[in-house]
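Open question from group meeting: does this chain pack into something compact, or does most of it stay loose? Before anyone orders reagents, we agreed to write out a predicted structure and look at it together. Recording both the input and the output here so the notebook holds the full record.
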Amino acid sequence: MIIENPWSKMLDLNTLLNPPEGLTISMILLISFILGLLHGATPDEHTWPITFSYSVGSYSTKSGMKSGLVFSLGFTAQRALLTTLGYLGLAAVYRAYDLNGPVYVIVGTLMLFVGSYVLKGKYLHLPIDLFLGGRGHHTESAERVAPETAHLKGVSLKMASVHGLVAGFGFGAYATIITFILSPQVPSLVYAPLPGIFFGLGTTVMQVIFGAIFASFAKVKKLTETDLCYLGRFTAGRTLYYGGLLFALVGLFVTFFPSIESLAISTGNPIPNLDAVGVATALVLVVVGVIGAGSMIKGIRTLNEIDSGKYCSP
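Structure tokens returned:
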């Protein structure tokens, strides 16, 4: 006689993405955690670009893991609030309004602000940093500020947590499942934050891992500590600055033309974030793949021309 394990059916992909009614609290929390793992492991525009920026800016694997952890804790706090609202029926605003555009704008503005701080004193191709408290980088004769006066700033873990909190207001397939399907099934209001917390913990596990991976990118060559400091902060600053500008511009576009979010090319993969290539995927690819990787390559080349100790003190 073969005894079927009831948990095995609960953990298949179809059940995870389409949870049934009548789940026990333990099953709800397990599914929430696994969904969090999937969310953290797949290229999500609300997590990867920011985790990449802060982790690389930490220029060490240990600090990169810490950046991923701090960001995800802010994200987890917001998800706990979201599932509580879902239990109370107050999250219906997400069904009526597309808030991704405004969230992109806010996240992008924060990225832009932090990137401007990290790059303060460095030459920037766009003058917008002047409006964010930066100083002029060109004389009237368009000469570059002397390198000895430039000093890259460290990334702020406090800002990483704020970024996580704000990014959590973005809404996608995973948020829909935990908010509208899982959270209404918990026994009482006391349990309402738990699906969000377990979802956030799952995301945290993957973001810590990816934070360490992203940070290790800065060690592709045998570099000194000041070289790693310069490369990490240079890459993070440019990724946050230019990536933030892109986020804000795309957010404005999505806010006024929300229908563009529905434009996507299907991949045939049922897993959310991997099921189609659209605006969100493009943001991840451009911010991490083009701006982030491009900045790292440029930073490595620049190291051959400068004394990194003049630019960055670990």
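Observations to bring back to the group:
The chain is about 60% helix and 0% strand.
Confidence is low (pLDDT under 50) at residues 121-149.
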